């Protein structure tokens, strides 16, 4: 199956519209997320790192901070805990925050 760039652009637009609809309508969020996941697998499209954290790996539910997941900063890691299945994902982050004024002097 050959996929053209236009198809991927169209998919990304549709994917984000499904995610936005899921955030607005809590009852249909599971359905919209499953449709988006089905499109992902059928078209064999890879998500970016940021997009991967929108969907839980274990239960395929949409992760909305404060609604369906808890986001915490602990010991150099950003942790996402799904409230549906309890799955925890960790991302390492750099504690040192560089300001623009620090970069100018280099």
TrEMBL record:
Keywords carried by this UniProt record? Cytoplasm, Endonuclease, Hydrolase, Metal-binding, Nuclease, tRNA processing, Zinc
GO CC term (a single one): ribonuclease P complex
Supply one GO molecular-function term.
Answer: endonuclease activity
Please give the Gene3D superfamilies that the UniProt record associates with this protein.
Answer: 6.20.50.20
Per the record, the domain of life is Archaea
What InterPro entries does the record point to? RNP4, Rpr2/Snm1/Rpp21
Q: Which GO terms describe its biological process?
A: tRNA 5'-leader removal
Q: What is this protein called?
A: RNAse P, Rpr2/Rpp21 subunit
Q: Which organism is it from?
A: Candidatus Parvarchaeum acidiphilum ARMAN-4
Q: What is the lineage of its organism?
A: Archaea, Candidatus Parvarchaeota, Candidatus Parvarchaeum
């Amino acid at each position: 199956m050959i996929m053209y760039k236009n198809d991927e652009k169209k998919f990304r637009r549709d994917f984000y519209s499904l995610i936005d609809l899921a955030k607005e309508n809590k009852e249909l969020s599971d359905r919209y997320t499953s449709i988006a996941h089905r499109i992902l697998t059928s078209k064999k499209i890879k998500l970016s790192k940021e997009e991967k954290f929108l969907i839980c790996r274990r239960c395929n539910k949409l992760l909305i901070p404060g609604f369906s997941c808890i986001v915490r900063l602990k010991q150099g890691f950003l942790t996402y805990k799904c409230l549906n299945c309890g799955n925890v994902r960790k991302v390492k982050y750099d504690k040192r925050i560089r300001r623009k004024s620090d970069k100018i002097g280099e």
